[in-house]
Amino acid sequence: MRFGGWMAGYAVVACLFLLDLTASTAHAQLHDSLDAYPPRWQLDTSDCDARVVDHRNLADQGIDGGGCETVTVVAGNGSEALLAYRIEPVMVVDDLTATVAVMSAKQGLRVGLRVRFPYERDDLTNRPLSTVVFGASYTHPGEFTTLGVGRIGGDLNLKIIALRQQFNRPLDLRDPYVDAIIVNAYGGAGATTVRLDEIKVQGMLSIGDAASMGYGNFSGIELDRNQQFRIGSADGELGQSILTQPTNRTVSQTAFPTDTVIRILQHNGEPLSWVRSLGFDAVLLSAPPDAEILREAIQAQLLVYAPPPTAPDPSLEPLLDPVAGWFIGSGLSLDSSRVGQATVSSNRLRNFPGRWQRPVIAAPAEAWRDYAAIADALVDDQPIRERDLSAVEEVAETSEKRVQVGDRVQFAVGIASMPSHRAMEQNDAISLAIGAPPSGMFRWHSMLLQTVRSIENAPAAILFRSSRSLASGTEMAAHRSMALGYTNRLVAMLGPWIAGSQQAAPLPLSGARYRCGHLTTADGADLLLLTSEMTRGSEVLAGDGQSIEIVLPPDLANRTVWRMTHFSAERIEVIPTADGARIPIVSPDVAEIIIISDDPALGSKLSASAKRFVRQASLDRWQLTTDCVRITRELWNQAVAMRAAEAAIPIDLLTAAANTIAEGESTYRAGDAEATLRIARRADAWGIRCSWQLSQALMSDWPHPTSCPPIDSGLAAVQIAWSPLMEDVGWGLDRLTSGGLDSPTVLAPGSWTFGQRRVARATSEVYWTDRGHFDGVGALRLIASSQSDTELPGGYAGTVAQLQSPPVRIPTGKAYRIDAMVRTMGFGNPHQGLLVYDSLGGQEMGVLVRGRTEWTPVRLYRQATEETQVRVMFELLGGGEAVIDEVRVQLWEPKAAPPLPFVPLRAAEENDLPNSRF
C-alpha cells in the first residue's frame, strides 16, 4: 500500500515536471513561414560591397506552394554577403538548432548562427563582438533545400581561439548568446537571388530565463560544472580566471549617435519590432529595463533609454548592449530646486560598475547651466501647441537654451505626439458622460511643424512624448502611428545633413505666411526649412492656392536648388534678380524642405537618401489624407444634421479633395510613390482647411481665448454631441462667491491665495484696486518684474507668481465652465503672458493670454470625473502685468423639458380625441 502510494505520488510529480518542461520547451520554439509582409531578412555585413536591389514577399512560390521571401543581392569579388534574420537573444546550448528552406540558381550558400560576446566591442560597428558558426551548405541549385545548423559548441571553441589570435590581447568572451540566423548569400560576383522560407528554431533558451532555471551559459571551454570557468590562451593553456580578467568594454561617451538624428518613442508597451517599423531608433522606458524588454530590444535593434535601477543586477549584464543612456528625473519637473537631488543621482550612476556605465540624460524645466554640469545630454520639451506660440517664439526659446549649455552636452528636443494626458482624460470623461464616440482626426500637421522647426537648432535626437500606447487599436492611435512613421522618415531622410549643421539666419519670404529656417550643413550646403505660420492652437493650414517666394542673397543665387518635400530630389527653378535670386513655390505643403548647394553631384546623394523612405512615407501620407477627407465630410454632415453648426458645408472644398483622391487612386495602386505624395499633398490641403472651418463653426466663443477639450484635441464628434454646452442657456448660478473681486478682503486668509516662487532674479506682487476694473467696484492686479538687467525668461522658468481662487466643490459627473475677464500688459519675450487654468485640467490645458490691453473674456470648459474641489489658477510667466476681474464657476444644470401634452388613449373620451374617426 505504501509502495503503491509512493509510486503514484512519484508518477504525479514526474508528470508535472514533464508538463512544465514541455510547456517551457514549446514556448521557446520559433516557426516563421515568411508568407506575410514585411520582409524580415536584412543584409548584415559583406566583404564584397554587396547591396540589395530587390527584396519582397512572394505570395505563392514557397517550398509548400505558399508565400516566401525573395532577396536579390548584387556583389563584387569576395566571399561573404550575410543575410540576417534576427531572433531574441538565446543561450549557446547544443540543443539549439535552426533550419531554413533555401532556393537559388547558385550553389555554395550556407546557413549559420550569429554569436555575440556582450563584454567585447567591435571597433567598426560599436556593437558587441560577433562571429558566425556555419552549418550546412546549399548544393542543389534551382530547388528548395532545407539547410540546418546545430550543436555549435565545438565550432564555437575554434572561433574563440581564432578571435584571440586575431586581437592578440585578453578578451572577455563570457556569456555569449545567439541573436540571429545567418545565410551567406554570396554566390559569386554579380547578382544572386535567394528565396527563403520556413524558418524553424528549436532548443531556444532565453538569456535571463536560464539563470533562474539553473543553466549555465557557454564558457568558451568545456569544464566540469564544479570547476571555475577559465578562458584558454591562444596556445590552449589555461589562463587567468574569468572573474579577474580585465574587460575591454568601451561605453560610448555620447548619449546619441553623432552621424544622424535619432528618433525616440516614449514607450507604453508597444511591441518593439513594430516600433522599429515606424522608423524609430530607440525607446524611452518608464521603469528600469528587465530581461524581457532587453531581449526584445536586441532582436528589434533598438536603443533603450530608461531610468536607472536602484542597484545593478548581474544577471542582466549580458543584455545591456542596447541600453544607451540613463534618464534621471522621469516623471518629475526638474526645476532649480531639484538640482541637488539630480546631482546625487548622477554621482551614483558614475560609480556604477564599468559594464553599467552609461551617459546620463535629463529633461530640465529650467536651470539649464546647472543641469548641463551633471548630465551628458539634455532634452528640451517644446511648448504645448495649444498655447499658440508663433514659429519665431518656438525657435527663439529653444535657441536660448541651446546657447546656455553650449557644446558641453548633447542637445535633444521633446515633441508631443498626442494631446496632453489631462486633455485625453477630459475627453474620455465627456464621451462617457454623453455617450459620444471619441471620433476625430489626430492633428498631426502641428506635430510635423514643431518637428521641422526644432530641426533649426540641429538636435542630436528627437524624443516623441506619448502617454498612451500606439498599439491600443483606437482610431487616434492608428492616425498617430502613421503620422509618426511619416515624420520619422522625413527626419531620417535629412539626418545626414542635419548632423553637424549650424543654425543660420532665416531667409526672407514673400507671399503666404511661412517661416524659412536656415541651416548650414557640414558639407557646405544650405538646408531651408519652411513651415506654415497659419496656425490656431494645434490646427494648421497649408498654402493651397497660394505661393511663396524665397528671397536668396547674392552668394546663394547661382547654386543648384532641390525640393525634398516629396521624398525626391526635384530640381526647381531659380529666378535671378538684381539683388540676388528668388525661388518660387506654388501651393506649398505645411512644411517644405529645400536644399541649396554649389555641388551638382549632391543631387544623387539626396535621391539615394530619399529613395530609402519614399515608399512607406507615401503609404502613410495617402492613408492619412484619405481618412482626413472622409472623416471631415462625415463630421460636417453630422454637425449640420444635429444643428451644432450654423455654417454651410464647404461642398466645393470637400468635393475637390474627394475628386483628387479618386483620380489619384490609380497612381497610388501603381506604386508611384512620388506622384502619390504630390496628389496627397493637394488633397490634404483642402481637407485640413475644411476641418479648420468645422472647428470654427463649432466654437461660438472664438476668437476669445478658450479651452474646450474636444476642440483642442481634434475630437469633433464629441464636440458636436457636447454643443449644447456652448450656449449660455443651461448653466447654473455662479459657485464662486468671491469671484467678483469687489472687496479688499478677497486676499484675506481663507479666500484668494497669492504665491511667489523663491527666485532672486524676480519680484512679484498682487493687490486689490478700485481703478480700471471691468465690473463692480474692484479687481486684482498682478505684477512681475526682473530685479536685474536681464529680462525674465518665458515658460516654466519664467513663472514667478500664482494666484488661486477659493475651492469650489464640483459633484461627480458634472460639467462646469469657468469665465474670467483679464487684461495684460508687457510680456514681450517668447512664451510669456498670463496662464489661466484650473486645478483639474492643470497647466497643460491652460490658456496663455498676452497682448490683450483691453478687457478680454477667457473661458474654460471641463468635465468632473468624481467629486472634487476645483480652484481657478492664474500664473504670471515672465515680466508683465495682468488685471483680473469677474471670475465665475458655473455647473451645467439644464432645466428639465416640460412634458409633452399627450393624452392617454384609454382614459380619453372619444369626442375629446382630435380628428377622431370613431
Automatic annotation (TrEMBL):
Organism name: Stieleria varia
Signal peptide: 1-28
Protein name (Swiss-Prot/TrEMBL): Uncharacterized protein
Lineage, top ranks: Bacteria, Pseudomonadati, Planctomycetota, Planctomycetia, Pirellulales
Keywords: Signal
